[in-house]
């Protein structure tokens, strides 16, 4: 109904927008039409002005023509007068003496003509000037008018194009809006129909809601009356009492938590192993660099630092023990929440002690790095790596402190009830994941910088083989720590949602376990309830035959023995796996040492071969603890095959030559290499075989445990169904007896009622007879009277 109302409102809004847009388009169209009309009026006025200018120009041209004609006439007259003057001059000379009066008359006429000619010339000059000025002005005005006319024509064309474009656009918009209007009208009609249907539906829903409200109110009243009459004590009203209620047992949750804790234990064990190796190899490095303790005494600072590092196992080992105790405390029968994980406090205390150890060794570690930087052979690149490592060590200690803070907060609910609010659990777990990722990033930086530092130190001229080997061991331990930190960070990130979701596992109506004491009481009540339920589930002796009970007992004992045998096999497989892991690490270290010794021997052999000038082969002296020895010099003439002698040791059987005959150096090295490679391959295959067997045993055990769990669940379900069926049978029998009794009671009541009705009818008949008799007697008396 709300969606239909929204659709109708959208339709009305679209209509309003359509009308507003049409109004705006009409207003803009009127403005544009007015502008076009104004421009057309301006162009018409300009055309009129141009016509008037053309007319004035024509008049001026006519005047100019008349003036030029008049000038020509005057010029001809002047010429005639000059001719007459020229003709009259000789005559005047001849007749000069004849008459002065005629000369005076001619001079007067000449002066008159001259004045008239001068006036005509000035007037002609003035007219020429006016004509020239009028012509120039006319040309200037004509040019201005033509340019203005061209600009106006271009503007008129642009305006016309704009008007055409806008007209086309407005026509398209109008067509589109008309289509939208038609579509919206259709849609509005459909929405009106839907609105009518929705009104009908709402009326029906309101009727249903009213009926449901009445039904639920009646049920609520009935339930409240039953609760008030039948429930004497409500233990969910107060959270202190509700915290003592035993929650529903979630076996899947417990198995999941135990599995997750086992994975965390494995990661912590790897982390502890890496920390032990890192601190131990760091102690070995201090003994040989920058000063070798076998040659000279090391500084008091490094002595104290070495002494502290020697105590690392007493601080690191308890971390593994604390995690192991936490794993052992989580079983299938407990309730695992933060209020019940008391062993987490122990792990937090062990982590606090290890952080105190890190704080104690951090200043010595920084001073030791500064001492290395102050050495004479320390280059600028090595000094930069040392400074980066000192910063990384500070970050590592800070990350451990941050991690310990959050783990300490998670351990508070099991010891102090008000130490950490339940609403802050999720944020604390998120911060733990962030701290683990920060630890992984710091270890990656340490691995990167230490590998660069080891590479630079290997290139130093004073780098010994002990230093190179120790640096490689430290680098391998740092890589192991980096991998372990990455695994545990990704593991926690993958399971943090499950941790946050599992925090609500506890009393439903209360906010949680009020205090560790209430949690402990709840666990005791849970054990008592489990024992009570187990006692209730014992079958009666009369309900199961003796032969079937014996068969069930044999099956139960065989399943229990097989389960115990499988558990023992799993334990043995785990022990074998741990031993094989230790052997694998041992042989990996042996292989590294053998590789280093082989490189040393190759280097020494190459140096000696370079030093010999006569090309004779010189026997290579090898260490006293080596398994292969060879001595003597090969004779140029003797090429006899040496006799082979077998030597046995803890790592296998090795073939060697007698002391009297020396093999070639390369063949001996190949023999050693092949022997070690074959031994490593053999050990690897054995390890893989053991791993596959352990995985197979683990899979079988998991499958058997799952089958056992399914069998137990099916057994419990069948028992519950049997119990429900028996209860239904007894209930139906009771109902049958009660219905029989009620029917019998009703029949007896009906028979009694019929008897009483017969009695009343008989009494009424008797009364009617008596009334008739009395009425007859009265009528007789009246007649007699």
From TrEMBL:
Tell me where in this chain the Protein phosphatase 1 regulatory subunit 21 N-terminal domain is found: 19-117
Q: Which SMART domains match?
A: KLRAQ
**Region Disordered: start-end pairs:** 89-109, 761-785
List where this protein forms a coiled coil.
Answer: 43-77, 142-201, 563-597, 701-742
Matching entries from InterPro entries are given as: PPP1R21 (IPR040024), PPP1R21_C (IPR049372), PPP1R21_N (IPR019343), PPP1R21_six_helix (IPR019348)
A Pfam family the protein falls into: PPP1R21_helical
Single GO MF annotation: RNA binding
Composition skew (Low complexity), residue ranges: 100-109
Q: Name the GO cellular-component terms.
A: early endosome; membrane
Localization of this protein: Early endosome
Assigned keywords, A-Z: Coiled coil, Endosome, RNA-binding
Q: Which PANTHER family match?
A: PROTEIN PHOSPHATASE 1 REGULATORY SUBUNIT 21, SMOOTH MUSCLE MYOSIN HEAVY CHAIN-RELATED
Q: What is this protein called?
A: Protein phosphatase 1 regulatory subunit 21
Q: Which organism is it from?
A: Physeter macrocephalus (Sperm whale)
């Amino acid at each position: 109904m709300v969606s239909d109302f929204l659709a109708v409102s959208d339709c009305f809004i679209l209509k309003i927008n359509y009308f507003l847009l049409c109004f705006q388009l009409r207003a803009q169209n009127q403005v544009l039409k007015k502008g076009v009309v104004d421009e057309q009026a301006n162009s018409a006025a300009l055309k009129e002005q141009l016509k008037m200018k053309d007319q004035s120009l024509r008049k001026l041209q006519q005047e100019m023509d008349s003036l030029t004609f008049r000038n020509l006439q005057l010029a001809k007259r002047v010429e005639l007068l000059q001719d007459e003057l020229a003709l009259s001059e000789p005559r005047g000379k001849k007749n000069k003496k004849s008459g002065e009066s005629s000369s005076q008359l001619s001079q007067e006429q000449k002066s008159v003509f001259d004045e008239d000619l001068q006036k005509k010339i000035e007037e002609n000059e003035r007219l020429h000037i006016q004509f020239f000025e009028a012509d120039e002005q006319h040309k200037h005005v004509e040019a201005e008018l033509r340019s203005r006319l061209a600009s106006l024509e271009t503007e008129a064309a642009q305006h016309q194009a704009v008007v055409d474009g806008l007209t086309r656009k407005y026509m398209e918009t109008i067509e589109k809006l008309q289509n939208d209007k038609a579509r919206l009208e259709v849609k509005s009609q459909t929405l009106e129909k839907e609105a009518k249907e929705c009104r009908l539906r709402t009326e029906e829903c309101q009727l249903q809601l009213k009926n449901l409200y009445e039904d639920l109110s009646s049920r609520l009243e009935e339930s409240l009356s039953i609760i008030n009459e039948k429930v004497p004590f409500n233990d969910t009203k107060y959270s202190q009492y509700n915290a003592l209620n035993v929650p529903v047992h979630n076996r899947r949750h417990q198995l999941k938590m135990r599995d997750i804790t086992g994975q965390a234990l494995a990661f912590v064990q790897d982390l502890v192993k890496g920390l032990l190796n890192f601190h131990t190899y760091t102690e070995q490095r201090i003994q040989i660099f920058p000063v070798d303790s076998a040659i000279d005494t090391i500084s008091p600072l490094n002595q104290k630092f070495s002494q502290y590092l020697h105590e690392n196992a007493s601080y690191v080992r308890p971390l593994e023990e604390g995690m192991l105790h936490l794993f052992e405390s989580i079983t299938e029968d407990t309730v695992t929440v933060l209020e019940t994980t008391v062993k987490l406090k122990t792990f937090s205390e062990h982590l606090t002690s290890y952080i105190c150890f890190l704080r104690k060794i951090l200043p010595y570690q920084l001073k030791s790095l500064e001492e290395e930087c102050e050495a004479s052979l320390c280059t600028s690149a090595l000094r930069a790596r040392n400074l980066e490592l000192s910063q990384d060590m500070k970050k590592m200690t800070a990350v451990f402190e941050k991690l310990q803070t959050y783990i300490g907060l998670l351990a508070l609910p099991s010891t102090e009830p008000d130490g950490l609010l339940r609403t802050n659990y999720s944020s604390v777990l998120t911060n733990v994941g962030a701290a683990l990722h920060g630890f992984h990033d710091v270890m990656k930086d340490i691995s990167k910088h230490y590998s660069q530092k080891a590479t630079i130190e290997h290139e130093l001229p004073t780098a010994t083989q002990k230093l190179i080997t120790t640096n490689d061991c430290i680098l391998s331990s740092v890589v192991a720590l980096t991998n372990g930190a990455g695994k545990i960070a990704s593991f926690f990130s993958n399971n943090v949602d499950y941790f946050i979701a599992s925090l609500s596992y506890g009393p439903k109506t209360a906010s949680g376990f009020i205090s560790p004491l209430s949690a402990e009481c709840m666990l005791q009540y849970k054990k008592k309830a489990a024992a009570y339920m187990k006692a209730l589930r014992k079958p009666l002796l009369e309900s199961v035959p003796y032969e079937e009970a014996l068969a069930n007992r044999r099956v139960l004992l065989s399943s229990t023995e097989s389960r115990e045998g499988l558990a023992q096999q799993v334990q043995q497989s785990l022990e074998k796996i741990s031993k094989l892991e230790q052997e694998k690490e041992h042989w990996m270290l042996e292989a590294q040492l053998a590789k280093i010794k082989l490189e040393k021997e190759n280097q020494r052999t190459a140096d000696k071969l370079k030093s010999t000038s006569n090309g004779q082969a010189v026997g290579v002296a090898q260490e006293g603890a080596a398994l292969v020895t060879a001595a003597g010099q090969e004779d140029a003439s003797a090429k006899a095959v040496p006799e082979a002698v077998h030597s046995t040791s803890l790592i296998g059987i090795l073939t060697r030559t007698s002391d009297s005959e020396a093999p070639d150096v390369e063949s001996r090295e190949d023999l050693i290499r092949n022997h070690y490679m074959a031994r490593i391959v053999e050990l690897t295959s054995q390890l893989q075989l053991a791993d596959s067997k352990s995985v197979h045993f683990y899979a079988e055990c998991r499958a058997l445990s799952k089958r056992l769990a399914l069998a137990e669940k099916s057994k419990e379900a069948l028992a519950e169904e049997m119990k429900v069926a028996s209860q239904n049978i007894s209930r139906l029998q009771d109902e049958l007896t009660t219905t029989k009794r009620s029917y019998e009671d009703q029949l007896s009541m009906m028979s009694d009622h019929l008897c009483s009705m017969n009695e009343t009818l008989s009494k009424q008949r008797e009364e009617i007879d008596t009334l008739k008799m009395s009425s007859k007697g009265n009528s007789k008396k009246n007649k007699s009277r």
